[in-house]
């Protein structure tokens, strides 16, 4: 039996969705975030030393890191090869987006979240304007010039096809879902109508809805 160690409001939402797309039976062990730090609980470190979510167990195996979990589940259970192209440009594009999600887009989104949180953190009142100015400058000079071209590139890609790799859903769409949902709460989407359309499209899928019903309400931080 597959067990998903599911931290609330986290990337493990993607794994629940993938399991639903594959029509597999699985169980969920739920974990709560620390209300102050948003960290996962110590108990997650008993499953994997880094204590991050998602992590799954399947029999004796423990698999961590979303991309590795996705590839493992497809290798083992996507017998009809529905969610991963088998060759050619489609396979290359699939791999590109699968890795882009955590390798390129997420680091900038995490940086943005940290910078957005800094001015809200408790600190002496006279330090607040300085903290706000530093956070604003880092976002303006470092994060925005890097994240904007990425978002524009995604926007263009989603303007050319329904999904990241053509007209069929692949696991690359599942992997890209979390950063795009997170970006929609961390920046304005007015310039990115195709990304907004993609988010609506995934959230309406029956398998996504089933995953939500089993894993509980989901929001990005
Ligand atoms: N690149 C990793 C990131 C894992 C990760 O940072 N997960 C977050 C949840 S979205 C987490 O566990 N946060 C809790 C913590 O850092 O304590 C993956 O995709 O699996």
From TrEMBL:
Q: Which SUPFAM superfamilies match?
A: GST C-terminal domain-like, Thioredoxin-like
Residue span, GST C-terminal domain: 87-221
Q: Does the keyword Transferase apply?
A: yes
Which catalytic reaction applies to this protein? RX + glutathione = an S-substituted glutathione + a halide anion + H(+)
Q: Which UniProt keywords apply?
A: Transferase
EC number(s) of the enzyme? 2.5.1.18
Q: Which Pfam families match?
A: GST_C_3, GST_N
Q: What class of enzyme is it?
A: transferase
- Write down any Gene Ontology CC term: cytoplasm
Specify the protein name: glutathione transferase
The record's annotation in PROSITE patterns points to: GST_CTER (PS50405), GST_NTER (PS50404)
Q: Per the UniProt entry, what species is this protein from, by scientific name?
A: Marinomonas alcarazii
**UniProt-recorded Gene Ontology molecular function terms:** glutathione transferase activity; peroxidase activity
Q: Give start and end of each GST N-terminal domain.
A: 1-81
This protein's source sits in the domain of life called: Bacteria
Keyword RNA-binding applies: no
